[in-house]
Amino acid sequence: MKDYWHWYNKAQKLAKKDKFKKAIACFEKALTFCEDDYWAWYNRAEALYKRGDYKQAIASYELAAQIRPNDYWTWYHRGYIALEELEQFDDALLYFKTAQTLKPNDYWTWYYQGDSWRHLQRYQDAISCYEQALELRPNDYWACYRKGDSLRHLKQYEAAIVCYQQVTQIDTNSFWPWYKQGDSYRHLKQYANAIIAYQKAIDLEPEDDYAWYNLACCAAQIDLIDLATQAIKIAISFNSQHQIIAQSDPDLKGIKII
């Protein structure tokens, strides 16, 4: 084992210095002396991931998992790489589901299952997972936000608004939940509420052309002509393409497009 530890320790030192290519070579050398060592396969996988060799990283985690089948982390990391780096959403679900059975009260495995379902456009399944995540972290920004997105995709706008409102209570300075509240109210034809939400979004990002454009459309629907005219003018000043779109937009009928 002396030779194994020499190469393993050298690999660890190189990895700490972000010299991942050399570290990987040393882990592989260590494995020639002890091929069934969990930590060498696991840390090799981590180094491969940090180099951007995602498929090889998954393969190395799989070899580690063969040695320790009930290890949470090898399943979790494979799920994360499959989801975030390779966009292999079905595979990600399988990894996260197994990780979740090993650690049932883990927020992240529920959250990432939700993300995987959402990318697969299985929004009701995504919502169920986000709700499980929220039971573990009731005030989590992202689980609540993504639950809102999934509800919006299902056209459950009132429920989506409730989620986005909760998100704005968690982080009052976040643009997107205000913007998406505006969109949801607009779908419900609650134009006054939509205007308030878009204005909140604009307070946070004054140069967002779509927020200004959508505000103009909502204002026009309830005959706030001056506000609609001002808002569309500002939207066009940030993005000239809006001038072309606005001229044929029925929501802006009767509004002077400069």
Structural features, described:
- The protein is mostly helical.
- The protein is built from 15 helices and no strands.
- The chain has helices spanning 2-16, 20-33, 38-51, 54-67, 72-85, 89-102, 107-119, 123-136, 141-153, 157-170, 175-187, 191-204, 209-221, 225-238, 241-247.
- Helix 4 packs antiparallel against helix 5, helix 7 runs antiparallel to helix 8 and helix 10 runs antiparallel to helix 11.
- 43% of the residues are buried.
Strand percent estimate: under 5%
Average pLDDT, to the nearest integer? 96
Listing every helix as H and every strand as E from the N terminus to the C terminus, the arrangement reads HHHHHHHHHHHHHHH
Low-confidence stretches: none
Shape: elongated
Distance between the termini: 79 Å
How many E-type strands? 0
Sheet having the most strands: none
SS-based class: mainly alpha
**Rg, Cα atoms, Å:** 25 Å
Quick description:
The chain is mostly helical.
Task: Show the helix and strand layout.
Elements: H1 2-16, H2 20-33, H3 38-51, H4 54-67, H5 72-85, H6 89-102, H7 107-119, H8 123-136, H9 141-153, H10 157-170, H11 175-187, H12 191-204, H13 209-221, H14 225-238, H15 241-247
